[in-house]
Amino acid sequence: MAPPPATQPIDVKSGAWEGIVNIDVSVLVPDYREPWNAGQPSGGSGTGFLIGKNRFLTNAHVVSNATRILIRTTNDPEPHPAKIVHIAHDCDLALIEAEDGSHFEKLKPLDFGGIPQLNTEVIAIGYPIGGDRISVTRGVVSRIDFRPYSHTSVDSHLAIQVDAAINPGNSGGPVMQEGKVVGVAFQGFSGRVAQNVGYMIPVPVIKRFLKDIEDGRYDHYVDLAASDFPIENPAQAKALGTNGDGVGVMVGDVEPQGSVGDLLKIGDVILSIDDNPVMNNGLVRFEGELMDMNEIVERKFAGDTIKLKYMRDGKKLETTVTLKRFDPYVRLGAQYNQRPRYIVNAGLVFQPLDRNLMDAHQMRDDTVNYVFDNFLTDKLYVERPEPVVLTNVLPDEVNTWITPYAHSVVDEINGVKIKSLKDVQTALAKKDKPFIEIVLLEKNRPLVLKRELAEDAHKRIMATYNILEDSYLGDE
Amino acid sequence: MKLSQIFLFLVLGAATLPAQTPDAPKKKRPPAVTEGPAVAQQVVQNNSLVRVNATSQSYSLHLPWQKESPSSRRGLGVVLDGNRVLVTGQMVADSTYIELELPEKGQKIPAKVVAVDYEANLALLESVPSDRQKAFFAGLKPMAVDTSARIEDKVDILQTGRVGELIKSELKIGKVLTRRYNVEGSGFLVYEANNIVRSEANSFTLPVVKNGKLVGLLLSYDSKNQVTTILPAPIIEHFLKDVADGSYEGFPSLGMELQSTLDEQFREYLGLKPDAPGVLISMVMKGGSAEKSGMKKGDILVAINGFAIDSRGDYKDPQFGALSSSHLVRGRAYVGDKVEIKVIREGKEVTLNGELTRRKPDDYLVLPYLFDKGPRYVLMGGLLFQELSRPYLDAFGEEQRGGAILRLSHIASHPDKSEEEGRKKIVFLSLVLPTPSAQGYEKLGGQVVNKVNGKAINDLNDLADAFKNAKDSVHVIELNDFPHIIYLDSFNAERDNMRLLDGAYRIGSLKRLE
Fold first, then answer.
1. Over the stretch B143-197, which tens digit does the pLDDT of each residue have?
2. Smallest Cβ distance to B483: which of A250, A445, A448?
3. With a threshold of 0.95, does the pTM exceed it?
4. Are residues A356 and A404 in the same domain?
5. Three-state SS sequence of B206-258
6. Which end of chain B, N or C, is less surrounded by CB atoms within 10 Å?
7. Nearest by CB to A239, which of B263, B407, B487?
């Protein structure tokens, strides 16, 4: 192992670090309780760094929900307004540019290195806890592992653990080794959970993001959308027909709408991915490291293929999988830069079920919680891709008897099965009967409103509760 | 539900106060009062009350081969005809030892449960006839049951002090309603009264009397709001009559769910006239009295046994006024009684005739409560299988309710689908003990079992049978949830079974199927 490099003083006046900038952000946090309102203004700051001509890399969470972004360098207090070019919430990366890039033309972009080795020294550079001067902390690479990215809370990718102090404000800043960027600092633990643990997004994840946006659009990660279960049990190995050489992992679940939905079945044994043998615990040896087999899929893009060898009923089979994004899980994670969608009708507020909604409303209803928690595990998305919740009933004479039914999943309106918020609009437009009839999931009585009363009340309720628009269904 | 929990805390708190605990060694002490400023000058006794001390010990829900640590409860029992003693069911649930004690003399005698109904929360105790028993009851006088109490009546809650002196708290009955007692099920009649109730050592099961007659037993006391609920005499009388005829049937129910029709728009939608009575039947339970009488979902219920049902679902009780229609069946009728139900179906009045039945706990897909016996289980090679029960689900706190527990709770709240599949109980893998044959499965738990060795599993007996038929010495266990299928070597599993017996986990038996 190479001896750690000698400590070198950093001369901030030299300009070598000028490309590492402070990002000051004003944000508007959307209001999922009163979705017609603008939301709560707030602010924060982070770090970014120049990687090309007027291109700054930072974390998605630094610039999420931003209404104004300002860039400052360490030697110049002048704020430069900036905007998002691409943002990838699933891997917590974003590319931003200054509105006037001329100021940064002379600065030298930072170069990328590779995956650093364990126990080698790295430095994290940034503007932690909001200071305007650059800060440097030092540590070693502690672990290289697949782990959850907390920005969405549902995505997991390769991440590198370091023991350099990474604090709020360091986010988006470079972690460097021998003058090259080996990662983007992005998350840590609160001191109550673990000490001296910080995480950075490693270069393969960064490069994948940069490659994905080359065509001018971010297409998101692709997914096998299958869960593997280790083959550790001798009876299991025997029954599944693996010969005990430690190769092959069992398929424990398959998402019918995922990339392998029509190809793999529960009880199949995955033997290799792109000719990399898969071990009985789901790991592959890839680029010299043992990694989760999903890492091979992670490096690919929508429409790419992988070669899968697997065993079914003792027979070895081979197939080519065309990879695609698995959409249903997106709503289980936090979403950003979106205006909340809703429909208000006669005081009844309908909103699509997702994590943002669950967090804002503190749903206690068993059915709502069951549908959200088991959206994937019980494959509820197949029947109902976007469950709609009656989140609120704004009290009025017309709806006074149905206020207790707020926080219910909507099953049908006027005979139309509700599979998305759009269906609510379609269903409410049906005016062939004198009653609006709303059937709730697992509630034993329909909610009914007399159409003429509801239509009169609608205008009154909109005015009383100060709602300017009675629906927002998205941009499309 | 909330009230009874509050009460429990109150009781436990009081029972641990040593100063208020009239313990056995004190019985030799003369009854004369020489100490304690709070004791009344004049000692009033009641010769129809005995102290009841019960030790209870429930089975562990998660490790069903073992029992939890024992705990004790104290209450006051009411002496009835035939030297029997009435207490609440809660008092003797999971009891291992019960004794009666004379409040003044401190004399004690063991007792056992002759009849108990955990839904109605009532139990009847008896001591084995003997000279000692005769002597114990010699000075006691049976108390009569009085079902005539009404709203506004003044009643007394009785407690006994350290030397058996009577402590009365006077209450006024403010409301009569129906409410769940301490286990899941439909509501029972309850008197609600307001006032302060003194906290004494023996506050589990306290008699409520009027003019020396029993009008109820204390069900709960919410000290913050000073609200007392009383298990009333009509329910006690029903219980005693049922016990007296030799075979205990329990309280009947119709097995249906109704929705009020106060909402005018809803009434119009249902085609109800503005002031017509009736409620919407929104659910009819399979195999219940209502279903057997021909009641259908969507019917408008207008009368039961000649009593009109209003749009809240209440009827006019001659004694208590407006009261939930459930009491017409549950409190005022017996299992086997005929019932006449009037409904409006497609605009026409239809009369349905049926016979009242009771759904036994074991008839439910998910056992609503479990006392006095251990949970059923099968242990195979370290895999622990159990039948889903309400107490098992309730043992998980609010913060542990994600994932598997939410999924199991959802099944418990919506049993129809599982029942249609032919399941009698939900069998699930609850825990995996680390054994060589269960290697790799340690983290599993909460998965519902569909099939074992090709056989559909509708209860634990099916499972025990299915384990007798391994193919090629491998058990194939199909689960409803991830990872959906697991395998177990049948020989190694048997070997591990032998090791588990009396091993580190102190397992005495590999299954409980009774």
1. 999 999 999 999 999 988 888 888 888 999 999 999 999 888 778 999 999 888 8
2. A250
3. no
4. yes
5. CEEEECCEEEEEEEEEECCCCEEEEEEHHHHHHHHHHHHCCCCCCCCECCEEE
6. C
7. B487
